[in-house]
Design brief:
Layout lengths: L15 E4 L6 H11 L7 H10 L5 E5 L2 E11 L2 E12 L8 H13 L6 E6 L4 H14 L2 E8 L11 E7 L4 H4 L1
Parallel strand pairs: 4-5
Antiparallel strand pairs: 1-2, 2-3, 3-4, 5-7, 6-7
Length: 178
């Protein structure tokens, strides 16, 4: 999916493509997550598996042929209308231009045919940038954004922060918003 450059004024001279991930993207995705200093970095093996097993519910953004960000998600087996977004990451030089929310928009466009009506994600309390990104996505779609505690800190080993569940419903495509 080619994204209109006008959405990215600050990087308008670059070629931006948002597409389904390929196996070759796994190492780049792992590196972006590792460099984020915010995300829990999964093993490199996990990102390779994600590219192989969940490309229909994930996206990669390329800028001038280089992976600049990704969204990885899955549909919940017991709730196939819910898309759970596991991670959204944008490489440091490309942050602040709306790339994350545009990858999410592209993912919702692609998963609409699967009957997705809700999006869920978890966000730690110390990550206001992610809260702002998902709030922007909800606003753009005219949807409600709700927050509940999903996992408390004492449920995690090793001092992990709690994770709040954010739900956007109903999700709409750009076409539906017109």
């Amino acid at each position: 999916m080619q994204i209109p450059i006008s959405k990215f004024d600050a990087i308008s001279e670059q070629t931006i493509q948002i597409r389904e991930p390929e196996l070759a993207d796994g190492a780049h995705m792992w590196q972006i997550a590792e460099n984020s200093r915010v995300l829990d970095t999964n093993s490199s093996y996990a990102y390779l598996l994600w590219c192989r097993d969940f490309p229909d519910t994930s996206m990669v953004a390329e800028i001038d042929g280089e992976v600049a960000g990704f969204v990885i998600g899955y549909t919940r087996p017991a709730w196939p209308n819910i898309l759970f977004v596991w991670q959204v990451a944008v490489d440091r030089p490309h942050r602040g231009h709306g790339l994350g929310v545009n990858m999410l928009d592209a993912l919702l466009e692609r998963t609409a045919a699967q009957g997705i009506t809700q999006l869920e994600t978890t966000i730690a309390p110390d990550n206001p940038a992610s809260v702002a990104m998902f709030a922007a996505l909800a606003r753009r779609g005219g949807a409600a954004l709700t927050r509940t505690t999903l996992f408390s800190a004492d449920q995690f080993p090793g001092g992990h922060q709690p994770e709040d569940l954010y739900r956007i419903a109903p999700v709409t495509t750009q076409e539906e918003r017109r």
